[in-house]
Design goal:
Largest sheet: 5 strands, mixed
Cofactor: Mn(2+); Mg(2+)
CATH class of the largest domain: Alpha Beta
Number of domains: 3
Organism: Eubacterium pyruvativorans
Radius of gyration: 20 Å
EC number: 6.3.2.4
CATH topology of the largest domain: D-amino Acid Aminotransferase, Chain A, domain 1
Number of strands: 14
Shape: globular
Number of helices: 13
InterPro entries: ATP-grasp, ATP_grasp_subdomain_1, D-Ala_lig_Van_CS, D_ala_D_ala, Dala_Dala_lig_C, Dala_Dala_lig_N, PreATP-grasp_dom_sf
Function: Cell wall formation.
Length: about 350
């Protein structure tokens, strides 16, 4: 008898559109000979909808015309396993994971604590530092301080050693709300822009670097893919560069690294995954300083993208693991650590 896999998509998040793209890829790749697929969409307003139409309607964001709104309590009777493909808030922050845990439905990916930790750029850096892992310099502020003492925040940022700086909302993904700041006169506007999106704001030291990523799959004994590298035609790897064509973004898989450099990057990715108590799967993003050669942990994405531009599935494909095989491994790992009671 096939198990019923609930694929969750959409959501109350700035990354709603990305979720639709990722979900389309997963839905086309999952083995329907092994699983009965139940598509659960979450509208921008937070309504849960059992969608029964074609996958293309999800990708085109016309899916709500072929769905019936359901109660959250109905999920326990509809699915045996949850596979969230929801990026950003309410998807990667522990919210949907907590809901599934309350309903005693096993699910794919990281648990509540790890999901919340890794979406928070401040808390995750503090954990990486506590584990002895290298992170770039940063300062933290909040909406109140930005409103009341912007000049003081600008002065504190001088301790980071110069420009450029990157100003980011503490809790978001896909480069939403991020600004590259070239001088102190640009900082107040960037701080205000980030504070609209989140209460806390992180300001990171700009590093002349290579952007490297690895995919990790596993629970207690995680496996690490080879490394990929991204270069962007934009001033940094922003939302447009990540999800649209024609902006000069290049992905190199495998990344041009020596064996020694690759071993360092893979081990750092594995160490970050373990330090953040990840389970199932994640993508670890790192930076290699072009001036010093030092490698820094940047962040972990606990529900990495599955779009045609996304690094995680491409890295594992390069390692000889097809997307359907990746999905099967992720489901098996979710069952292994969260047996339904």
């Amino acid at each position: 008898m096939k198990d019923r896999i609930g694929i969750f998509f959409g959501g109350v998040s700035d990354e709603y559109e990305i979720s639709l793209m990722s979900a389309g890829t997963v839905l086309r790749a999952i083995d329907r000979n092994q699983h009965e697929v139940v598509m659960i969409g979450i509208t921008r307003e937070g309504a849960f909808v059992h969608f029964t139409g074609d996958v293309s309607e999800i990708e085109q964001d016309t899916w709500q015309t072929h769905g019936e709104e359901i109660r959250v309590s109905d999920l326990g009777e509809m699915i045996d396993f949850g596979f969230p493909v929801i990026h950003g808030r309410y998807g990667e922050d522990g919210s949907i994971q907590g809901l599934l845990q309350i309903l005693q439905i096993p699910y794919a990916g990281c648990g509540i604590m790890s999901s919340a930790l890794n979406l928070d750029k401040v808390a995750s850096k503090q954990v990486f530092e506590a584990a002895g892992l290298p992170v770039c310099g940063y300062e933290v502020t909040d909406r109140r301080e930005i409103a009341e003492d912007t000049d003081g925040v600008v002065r504190r940022c001088e301790r980071l050693g110069g420009y450029p700086l990157f100003v980011k909302p503490a809790n978001t993904g896909s480069s939403i709300g991020i600004s590259r700041v070239e001088g102190p006169e640009e900082l107040p506007e960037a701080l205000e822009r980030a504070a609209v999106i989140d209460r806390r704001v992180i300001i990171e030291q700009g590093i002349h670097c290579r952007e490297l990523e690895v995919g990790v799959i596993g629970n207690e004994e995680p496996r690490v893919s080879g490394a990929g590298e991204i270069t962007s035609g934009n001033v940094f790897y922003d939302y447009e560069a990540k999800y649209t064509d024609g902006v000069g973004t290049n992905i190199y898989i495998p990344a041009p690294l020596t064996d020694e450099e690759l071993a360092e990057v893979r081990e750092l990715g594995r160490s970050a995954y373990i330090a953040a108590d990840c389970q199932g799967f994640a993508r670890v993003d790192m930076m290699k300083d072009l001036d010093t050669g030092k490698v820094y942990v940047n962040e972990i994405n606990t529900i990495p993208g599955f779009t045609k531009y996304s690094m995680f599935p491409l890295l594992w494909k390069e390692a000889g693991v097809s997307l359907p095989q990746q999905i099967e491994r992720i489901i098996a790992l979710g069952y292994a650590c969260r047996k339904k009671k």
